[in-house]
Amino acid sequence: MKTYCKHSRITEPAFVRESIEKFLKGKRSRRDVNEFLSRQSDLDSLSRQIADEIGRGEYRFAPIRYFRRMEPISGKIRIIGRESIRHQIYDYVCGTALMPLFRAKVGRWQTASIPGRGIADARRAIKQWAREPSSKVFVKLDVRKCYPSISREVLKRLLSRDVGDRRLLDLTFHLIDQYAGDDGLNIGSYLSQWLANYYLSYAYHFCEQHLSKERVNRRTGETATRRLVTHMLFYMDDILLIGRSKRDLTIAVKRIRAYLHDTLRLEIHPTWNIKHVGVEPIDMVGFTFYPDHTGVRAGIFLRARRSFRRYARNPTSLRLAYRCASYYGWLKNSDSIQYRRRNNVDQIVRRARNTVAASRKKG
């Protein structure tokens, strides 16, 4: 069995320094990062300290602080963990060292929180799949409370099998054990995102290898193997399966649910339904996909429309300008050209971008 990360460099100050720079990229303007850098301006010295702590197995960072956050569209309450800057640096050191493992294990169509993939990659794929003649039916599955439900015992067992560096394992296990409770990962953590994708990669590869059935030709006696699904996509805890028939997808869902329950100790939300492509939209990654067009999820569209209208009435608001610039991506990447023309959305967004640019020049 192949193992990865056999000779990590986590005790080398140069490697820690590289990880710190990776962490700081795009974050230097954050208030908490600025405060940390004002106290710890010598990053080379910090790198030596952290490398020495990892070498001795004595890790120093503040406990995680937790707060509740309501999702603006779904209304779900999530418990988010806010790590100290030092803790986040440890996450980047560990995550960077584990990257060869993550690259090898995470499947091609696991797109959440993966650089170069994300929503854009998923959107392009589903848009193409929805137009294929073989795409007759689909089902969307939701792993119930994915982050809080991940078994640390199972996760550590998988890591112990796949990682060949004892010191790196000790650091990883220590970081995992800092999260509240006996099970689960921290929502909002850099390392947790990769570990969750790694954990679910076992379900992804199970789907690749075991979602098929055999059929025997009565006349010739030959056995043919046929895939139960034509396409699949994992966006963190959302799983999309596309197939040729309801019967095939029903068998596939039963196998996935059994594997998740028995092997990974995860549960699929019981309210899942197999639907026909084209009759009902594939609602995934914020878009709604039909064979002939792609729309925006209703909740996102309504919030975007509200932001455009409010900014048109108050074009000096920097907060609304940022919102308009952000929401414009949803409309630009969907078939919303008629709405944009009727409501002068492109003109509003140009003004919003000018407002943002002017504020940055002043800053």
Any overview of this molecule?
- Keywords: Nucleotidyltransferase, RNA-directed DNA polymerase, Transferase.
- It comes from Bifidobacterium pseudocatenulatum.
- With 363 residues, the chain is of the alpha+beta class.
- The protein has 3 domains: 13-105 and 151-184, no CATH class; 106-143 and 193-285, Alpha-Beta Plaits, CATH 3.30.70; 295-361.
- Helix content is 52%, strand content 14%.
- It is built from 15 helices and 11 strands.
- The protein has helices at residues 13-24, 31-39, 43-56, 85-97, 99-105, 118-129, 146-149, 152-162, 166-177, 190-210, 246-264, 298-313, 318-332, 337-342, 345-362, and strands at 65-70, 77-82, 137-142, 212-216, 223-227, 231-235, 238-243, 274-276, 282-284, 287-289, 294-296.
- It has a 4-stranded antiparallel sheet, sandwiched between helices. The protein has a 3-stranded antiparallel sheet with strand order 9-10-11. It has a two-stranded antiparallel sheet with strand order 1-2.
- A hairpin with a 4-residue loop joins strand 10 (287-289) and strand 11 (294-296).
- Helix 1 (13-24) packs across helix 4 (85-97).
- The longest helix has 21 residues, at 190-210.
- The termini are far apart.
